Amino acid sequence: MAEIIYGIRPVVEALKGRRRRVIEVLDSTKTGELRAAAGGVTVKKVPRDRVDELARGGVHQGVVARVEAYPYSSLEEILAVPEPLILALDGVTDPRNLGAVLRAADGAGASGVVIPKDKAVGVTPAAVKASAGASEHVRVARVTNLRRAVDGMKAANVWVYAAEAAGTDYAKLDLAGPAAFVLGSEGRGVRRLVREACDGIVSVPMLGAVSSLNVSVAAAVLAYEARRQRG
Asked: What are phi and psi of 155, to 5 degrees?
């Protein structure tokens, strides 16, 4: 099933990434970067109101693309790389948060992001936009049961940490080997059964008045620390 993604960067990255087929690009601007990245994909010049209509209120910068449905990966594909670095999200429902996590995962060179199929947001057009197109490069596995996914990561010799306030300071952990971080929604956090399946609890110390970070910021801090320790 085809869907619409919007925004210059998401569309350009979809064209560059080639992970899913871009059927056509509809452009109400004169953005040369689109045509340079298009290859054999049709770029149609259309009125801005047509782009407005297709984007359905999204901030589109005058550009939309009709693309195939998002190509989710399997957990096994994410685990197949040497020294996996994984971000797993438990109950994150805001596409902007998911998009920001995908952007952080791409920047830190993470192997992939794991999300549940139920009671959580998928890689929607809004998430693609929030990721600035990182969604078109980062592998995302959508699993039926996150606890079983944690068990699968551990069976693959990945150390799995739940991100919670009362955990070990992330700077004091050895994160140089295969590692995964499970982060929950801001309201509920990581569910108990998922947390209990993890190898340990990791926290980012908060030195100010606010008690927690946005999930995408916490994901970025943890992923970049793991990357730093790998050298």
From this structure: -65, -25
First and final C-alpha spacing in the chain: 42
Instruction: Sketch out the chain's domains with CATH numbers.
Output: 2-68 (3.30.1330.30), 75-230 (3.40.1280.10)
Residue-level pLDDT at 231: 84
Which pLDDT tens digit goes with each residue over 111-145?
Answer: 999 999 999 999 999 999 999 999 999 999 999 99
Please give the C-alpha separations between residue 129 and each of 42, 126, 148, in angstroms, as whole numbers. Answer: 21, 5, 30
- Which segments of the chain have a pLDDT < 50? none
* Residue 82 phi, psi (nearest 5): -65, 140
Instruction: Report how far residue 72's alpha carbon sits from residue 86's, in angstroms, rounded to the nearest whole number.
Output: 15
Residue 33, pLDDT score: 85
Q: What is the structure's pLDDT at 79? A: 98
Residue 26: what pLDDT? 95
- Three-class SS string for 121-144? CCCCHHHHHHCCCHHHCCCEEEEC
Question: For every residue of 18-87, which 3-state class applies, written as one string?
Answer: CCCCEEEEEECCCCHHHHHHHCCCEEEECCHHHHHHHHCCCCCCCEEEEEECCCCECHHHHHCCCCCEEE
